[in-house]
């Protein structure tokens, strides 16, 4: 979550740890938080240090912070406000709610609410940073009670005047109803993603997925144009070409047949072929694909055994095993 970027400076509040991220988002206002005893990886961090990047175990997500927050300005990141996410989910409102809660440490008139917020810190740090880490690890734990604290600390006035409704908060938008959790989810598209079958991940975090159908087509179960191999980088940006994805080796539509090894991606296609690609999306076999002399039906699931064998499940037969001898020929 975007608590990986903070701005801290001292303010005259009681001795405690207090820190939250950046500037005032959609409202354009800037809040600064106190830092009397902030710790990062067990070491004290001086007050007023400036932008603080937190890399702390499960929260080591610096590659994805920019998707949520522009760390150079403190405003929204490029992905959380795009057409896939901004108007399509409650992620912006969850971010705003969390930002307003963490901002309690910088509001002397709401110190009782801040003290209640610290009870949600399960890390043992005794700080708002600890609260943020606790939520990142278990976003479902205490979500309803946390929203109730926000609702009590920032009561919405009964008025039709939008300026009055927004005057008490720093971050907009915010949640109006209790969430089931405070998970911050994002949706990604492009690179031929349309009707993903199985999704597999390489060791570097790249997502690979064979697609049932091609984006923009009228494809369905009876008739259609098959999709290719889609790949998204760890930050969600497309690695594969738009619409078609990676193509080759006779691949024309993929069900659950995507498997990623250390150096190759394997696909089983509706076109009765097996395709194998390198981790840059380049086909490694013959143009017609691997057909095993016509013994392959419409491929479904595919998997890689520890010894390197590739096993295929399909509609027409029980199972075919592609042995290491075939791997060597490729």
Major beta-sheet overview = 3 strands, antiparallel
Distance between the termini: 42 Å
Structural class: alpha+beta
Broad shape = elongated
The tally of structural domains comes to 2
The neighbouring-strand order within the major sheet is 5-6-7
Q: Helix and strand string, N-terminal first?
A: EEEEHHHHHHEEEEEEEEEH
> Nearest-angstrom radius of gyration?
25 Å
Which percent band covers the strand fraction?
Answer: 15-25%
Helix content: 10-25%
**Average pLDDT figure:** 78
Would you identify the regions where 5 or more consecutive residues have pLDDT less than 50?
A: 1-60, 323-330
- Record field, number of beta strands: 13
How would you characterize this protein structure?
With 330 residues, the protein is α+β, with helices and mostly antiparallel strands. It folds into two domains: 165 residues, no CATH class; 134 residues, Neuraminidase. Helices cover 17% and strands 17% of the residues. It has seven helices and 13 strands. It has a three-stranded antiparallel β-sheet with strand order 5-6-7, with no helix packed on it. A hairpin with a 2-residue loop joins β2 and β3. The N terminus and C terminus are likely disordered.
What is the gist of this entry?
The protein is of the alpha+beta class and 330 residues long. Helices cover 17% and strands 17% of the residues. The protein has two domains: 2-166, no CATH class; 196-329, TolB, C-terminal domain (Neuraminidase, 6 Propeller), CATH 2.120.10.30.
